[in-house]
């Protein structure tokens, strides 16, 4: 988060104004790039019910600053432990994202990660297809045209609004920012880690909706959000303009007794930041970049989200760096905690019933 010295008084005042009302700037350059990749998947060892594998990635195209590799297992394999990458699995579909230290790959640059998993003791076939940042890895390089803008995404499910007493999450993409799957995927991972941490701390946690991240196509270009005054000083302009648009489009309140709302926008402006309070988290471009894995170690962004969710649930900043996640100790995440008084404050607060 970018709360200049965790200024609790200013944060509370500015959010009260903003919520009662109706890093590095994310810049996606639209140009023809050379893209291509090569993946080598090797079963390094295998035993009854278990196996180990190594995945080597070679970037054959233009340099990249973060990567997401996807494949699908065809015989029921499951991953139980991974290293040098963050790995998630849904059914047979696997998503691996770079660690903080191996996201940048120059042209012809390589990296690798490994994992242990389980198999059915009958067949353990090598996956047949991989994509790197959405590009199918064929072992060759092809030029790609200017990235296409995604179709308008309806952020609310057609069957009706999400269940109440849940956490809704939004990525607002300004009209001149190209769609990048790393952003909804990365923000979702940050929210899932925060959900896990709350469970560890409280013995109960909040519910995320499906899909976890609702992609909202912004009405304005990035500079409009950054330079149109809202909520007082410029620190808040991007995030308050985002929040106002989300409220208008989705019929959200501030506060809203139905949901806790988390918004991230790919816009920032000089000196911009974000914060939390009154059932909202509103974050600017450097947080969105961080979640996408292209702006520093992930623990920084995990801890920051836990901190801001604490504000959304009603907690103030700690008055000193005291080891709690409501102080600057969140920079050391996961080596921070909620004190008993903070836990009681959340559980007895307006959103305590959101934890189950």
Notes on the protein architecture:
This protein has 356 residues and is of the alpha+beta class. The protein folds into two domains: 37-144, Sandwich (Immunoglobulin-like); 166-354, Collagenase (Catalytic Domain) (3-Layer(aba) Sandwich), CATH 3.40.390.10. Helix content is 24%, strand content 27%. It has seven helices and 16 strands. The chain has helices at residues 8-20, 182-202, 222-227, 237-250, 285-291, 298-312, 340-347, and strands spanning 33-35, 37-47, 50-59, 68-72, 78-83, 85-90, 93-98, 110-118, 131-132, 135-136, 142-144, 166-173, 208-217, 259-265, 275-277, 280-283. The strands form four sheets. Strands 6-7-4-9-10 form a five-stranded antiparallel sheet, with no helix packed on it. A five-stranded mixed sheet has the order 13-12-14-16-15, with helices on both faces. A hairpin with a 2-residue loop joins strand 6 (85-90) and strand 7 (93-98). The longest helix has 21 residues, at 182-202. One of its GO terms (biological process) is carbohydrate metabolic process. This is Cellulose binding domain-containing protein. Pfam families: CBM_2. Residues 30-140 form the CBM2 domain.
């Amino acid at each position: 988060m970018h709360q200049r010295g965790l200024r609790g008084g200013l944060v509370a005042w500015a959010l009260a104004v903003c919520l009662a009302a109706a890093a590095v700037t994310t810049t996606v350059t639209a140009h023809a790039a050379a893209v291509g990749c090569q993946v080598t998947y090797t079963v390094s060892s295998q035993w009854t019910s278990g196996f180990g594998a190594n995945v080597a990635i070679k970037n054959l195209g233009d340099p990249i600053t973060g990567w997401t590799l996807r494949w699908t297992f065809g015989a029921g394999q499951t991953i139980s432990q991974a290293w040098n990458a963050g790995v998630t699995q849904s059914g047979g579909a696997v998503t691996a994202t770079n660690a903080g230290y191996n996201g940048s790959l120059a042209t012809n640059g390589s990296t690798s990660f490994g994992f242990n998993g389980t198999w059915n003791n009958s067949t353990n076939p090598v996956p047949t297809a991989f994509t790197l940042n959405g590009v199918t890895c064929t072992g060759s390089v092809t030029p790609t045209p200017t990235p296409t803008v995604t179709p308008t995404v309806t952020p609310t499910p057609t069957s009706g609004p999400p269940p109440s007493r849940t956490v809704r999450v939004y990525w607002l993409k300004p009209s001149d920012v190209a769609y990048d799957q790393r952003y909804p995927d990365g923000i979702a991972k940050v929210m899932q880690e925060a959900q896990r941490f709350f469970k560890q701390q409280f013995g109960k946690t909040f519910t995320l909706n499906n899909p976890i991240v609702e992609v909202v196509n912004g009405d304005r270009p990035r500079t409009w959000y950054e330079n149109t005054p809202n909520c007082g000083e410029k620190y808040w302009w991007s995030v308050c303009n985002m929040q106002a648009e989300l409220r208008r489009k989705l019929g959200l309140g501030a506060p809203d007794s139905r949901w806790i709302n988390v918004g991230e926008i790919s816009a920032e402006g000089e000196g911009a930041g974000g914060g939390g309070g009154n059932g909202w988290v509103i974050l600017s471009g450097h947080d969105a970049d961080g979640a996408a894995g292209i702006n520093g170690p992930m623990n920084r962004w995990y801890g920051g989200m836990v901190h801001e969710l604490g504000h959304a649930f009603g907690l103030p900043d700690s008055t000193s760096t005291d080891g709690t996640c409501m102080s600057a100790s969140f920079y050391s995440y996961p080596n921070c905690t909620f004190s008993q008084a903070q836990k009681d404050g959340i559980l007895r607060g307006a959103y305590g019933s959101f934890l189950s």
